[in-house]
Specification:
mainly alpha; 34% helix; globular
Length: 87
């Protein structure tokens, strides 16, 4: 699988895409938090961290862990939706 940006050659996430995804269907919030924390730790020591940060800023909708930071495409967040206040 090719990287989204050639500047990311040598990235520690290469070949591990699901670990860095923002959401995995059926995953619990606890499992998601643990997985994303582990992905962010991997990122912090990556040799292309600066290039990844730049690439994330250039993406229309970066989602998941990019440059050790969670970027969501889901503006509502995760978990149960909050109820609207009574009028």
């Amino acid at each position: 699988m090719a990287l989204i940006d050639p500047r990311l050659h040598g990235a520690r996430c290469a070949g591990r895409a699901p670990m860095f995804d923002d959401e995995i269907l059926g995953e619990t919030n606890e499992d998601r938090s643990a997985r994303l924390a582990a992905a962010a730790r991997i990122c912090r020591g990556c040799p292309v961290l600066s290039a990844c940060r730049a690439a994330a800023h250039e993406q229309d909708h970066p989602a998941g862990i990019w440059a050790a930071k969670l970027r969501n495409r889901n503006p509502q967040g995760y978990g149960r939706p909050t109820k609207e206040p009574a009028a």
